[in-house]
Input
Amino acid sequence: MELQRSIEKDLLAWKTSNPRKPLILKGARQTGKTFSLNVFGKGYFSRVHHLNFQKNKELRSIFDGSLDPERLIESIEFVLDCSIDQVADLLFLDEIQDCPAAITSLKYFHEDMSHMAICAAGSLLGVTQPEVPFPVGQVTFLTMRPLSFEEFLLAIGEKRTYSALRATRPPGPLAAVVHHHALSLLNEYFVTGGMPEVVASYALHRTDKHRALAQVRHIQNDLITASMGDFSKYSGKVDATVIASLFESIPAQLARENKKFKTSSVMPGGRFSRLQSSIDWLVAAGLAIRVKMTNSGELPFAAFTKENAFKLYLYDIGILGALAGLSPRVLMTASEPFATFKGAFCENFVAQEFLYSGVDSLYSWSSNKAEVEFLREVEGEVFPVEVKAGLSGKLKSLKVFQQKYRCKNRVRISARNLEINHQANMHSYPLYLAHRFPLK
Output
């Protein structure tokens, strides 16, 4: 199986940009940054010169002393025993968070050697080296996330389903056979999530569901253990035990009817001020998604938020299931005992898909007993989005929001088929098309 990642089009846009700054591909560990950059480099450059600062610690000494780009290139050529074509080749600085001076050097590459293509990959950037001078404004950032649902479809060989969903246009609906098949595949994605190693294993053993699901959970639990190890290794001045408690509390936070983050769910009597640095650490590390809560439906959403009012979701739906201790079989069959938590599961999925679609910041709305899971702005218009796990739902909060702020549109993302009714100003999206909102 060869993973196809949609980030390739963003990498190609970077390659052809003018002026072209050094690129930093950031994201949580094991999301496929190294793989994607190597595949991209081999496809679009004459040669890739790959330096991994974590695998080979001796490479860090290249960046001791002067950071003059010409000197650095000469040293890299000597260590790698090869010549570097500054016009046709790609220099790839991997695990760059382990070599702070290499991060700083990107500033000088931009200023003195802008003709050369230089990219870097790093995890935990912004939390591991807070005191290192960062080349602000002199690098291009891209974020690598776990595989989206459509990337998952390609990975498991569901190219026909992928093509059918990509060809979907409003107002719908999709053919019933396509709709139901996509929902069944979504249940599989709820188990695996989008971590590349997990999806690759599932694709390999998918014909033997029992073996495949057991292997999925095994790998996910290993990834959770590795993340926990990072807390103590890279937390710096932030209390690693608090980060771990916060991380482990997220499933319980989402299991409540009111999903607003509660400090007491992490530690009894804990105050937000004590947990704030740990929350920021998890979000900056790419391990949690923060959805800010606003008490207004007016624009801009950010103007009506409070620092301590938000929801926290996990960065990967598969990791959420593993951390919550949910049986893969329960997720696959959507059995009744799972009914309550499935709503939170679907919200986490939609949050991931919205980020995948290019949304920078996520917002939700809450007022008294009414809550709308997400607010989206599209060309100056406000779209309240309510998420439902099943087919039914009275959408009371959507009605409250619409009446209060007189917004034209309502959006439901659920197990229903696609139906965009402009007369009723009601947009019904199936869960598996969340990333395509708004369809045009």
User: Anything to note?
Assistant: The CA atoms of residues 249 and 265 lie 7 Å apart. The mean pLDDT is 93. The chain has 15 helices and 13 strands.
